[in-house]
Amino acid sequence: MRTMHKTLLCLMGLWLAWVSVLPPGGLAQPVADPREAAFVDSVLSLMTLEEKLGQLAQYRGRWSDTGPKVPEGGEAEIRAGRVGSFLGVYGAAYTREMQRLAVEESRLGIPLLFAHDVIHGFRTIFPVPLAEAATWDVTAVEEAARIAAVEATAHGLHWTFAPMVDVARDPRWGRIVEGSGEDPYLGAQMAAARVRGFQGADLRDPATMLACAKHFAAYGAAEGGRDYNIADLSERTLREIYLPPFQAAVEAGVETIMAAFNEVNGVPAHASTFLLDDVLRREWGFGGLVVSDYTGVLELIPHGVAADRAEAGRLALTAGVDVDMVSGIYVDDLPAEVRAGRLDEAVVDEAVRRVLRAKYRLGLFEDPYRYSDPAREQALTLTPAHRQAARAMAQKSLVLLKNEGGVLPLDRTVGTLAVIGPLADAPREMLGGWAAAGRAEDAVTILQGIREAVAPGTRILYAKGATIEGDDRSGFDEAVRVAREADAVVLVLGEHHDMSAEAHNRTSLDLPGVQRELAQAVHATGKPVVAVLIGGRPLSVTWLDAHVPAILMAWFPGVEAGHAVADVLFGDVSPSGKLPVTFPRTVGQVPIYYNHKNTGRPPDPNNKYTSKYIDVPWTPLYPFGHGLSYTTFAYANVRVDRPVIRAGETVTVSVDVTNTGDRTGDEVVQLYLRDEVASVTRPVKQLRGFERITLAPGQTKTVTFTLGPQDMTFYDQAMQPVIEPGFFTVYAGGSSENVIQTRFEVQ
Ligand code: GLC
What we know:
This protein is an alpha/beta fold and about 750 residues long.
């Protein structure tokens, strides 16, 4: 044991000596770091088959009273070289000890990777990803991921299973909260920003970590919005809607990809050579590592494509799943498969190279303990600067859905303000799902934020009114009583954090429980009411929309929830969020999304025989891209630099935006494109650009976008990417519906 470990150290010494004499440019090899391949192959050459398959094994940690620990027996597995990484194990001191076991007490001393779901913050919990997308602020989203990486790496983590980049058109699906909504273009921008944020400029920097684009692919197309269900869709929809954010992540340099639980058109993603090899590696040139989802390899058996563990393992590894999360099949069942000649060891070797490369790129072979620094952990967690960034993100994520009569912003000197609802004083709910190491006690509730924001003389009354779920109306009287005593009411309604994210799908988009009845009871008092919605998906708040003058969608706003909501409610900040997902009037409209096809009979209220419903308007409650401000903006003079271009050329679009209100505000200027006539039907609109701008009252800015070939390309009937001649309509505006237009021609 000690001798072999010394071999690796000796190898390291030789390698480091060799490195030092290499010319700066290194050898002429097609890899970013020419020494990497040589080093990785030299380590591989020392490994037994069991050690190789051990590197492909990932186990889940267990929670103990002193924090996350490796599972029972985990230390023995580390010493035996039968584990390459852990999920859910972190802590600077503890990971240092586990790393020491690997480096000093296993035969080859190969360092471990520690991974975790750091989705929207580690300890400083930011707004949920869908809320971050509602900011349409790519820079802020990258910065949020950067802060998450700083905190997570300070706790010994090397790898996050984020960004989740699944496009979601079905809000029944709970995991819509984890992504960037319904649009592939917005989703691609956010995916790339989060990869840059997590991985930084240099993975050897101990404040950077491996990112993981997930879940590859089309998990958001799960039938019925039901997690783990099948995705059955055309290759055209797959390529034009669900794949672009993954490709953007790969182009941004994402080091890892996670396979999806679902099948795609009959083939489970974990066994799909089309997805994992043809598309990911051959078409996109992805050179990183693919990790299974949790027991995803084992699930090939219930999927019905593998008869037993061994077959499941062979299928997944051969298809391109390099690391087996939790099922233990690779390390337990595949040695015999290789020895029986049913699995080529070269396939194992390639997966092991990818794991060793990841460890090499993080600098773990040079210094396995570089991420396990208690001083960093202490200094960099939940800092005031991190909280301030979370507050700024939350402010920008709030979407003002309605503001009739300028009810908002509220006057902070109001005499008595009633704060009512089950989400008003609910700290844990503010964090949303996938809250990593976040703690309820860190969160500022809406009630607390309002208390801190009002003038000293203002009286705050509070009543919960109802629970989030259930039909208990016993709290209504108290709620009505405090409403009657108040000059105005803030209703805080919505979903529990466990009503979205994984395995939390809903058949309804309504406010849960009796919350709508609570709103009706409070509204009946005749007091001015504004509603703040907390939740992880679009909510079909048609009654609120019809009766309550102001509605603010706050999603799950994170640790600074109360401060950010109060900043907007009292006008310190003008709301600027825009919906990254359509709000249906009712779940019966699902799927409903902005980039839909026109059909041969587009909806026409004056023609019965057109595509619509008899019981509900076909239009959404609130459209994609919608969001109001405390000021108003006017769009004018949208124009192109050239009315005619040749295929492959670019066209520049400009539009003048004016702040026509009386206070400064941010606006997200959106650009959409429509290919009017083509050899296959094209969406009525496709987002092709956006820019956040700040305008003072009366100020006008000209915003310019460049449209290139990639914006006009689509897959023709033969599934070949083409740009066809013809007219394109260009739309510019403050939402997907509130637009002005012009057109240009491709010859
Ligand atoms: C879960 C999720 C995935 C997560 C993984 C590890 O089942 O599908 O998003 O990263 O397991 O927790």
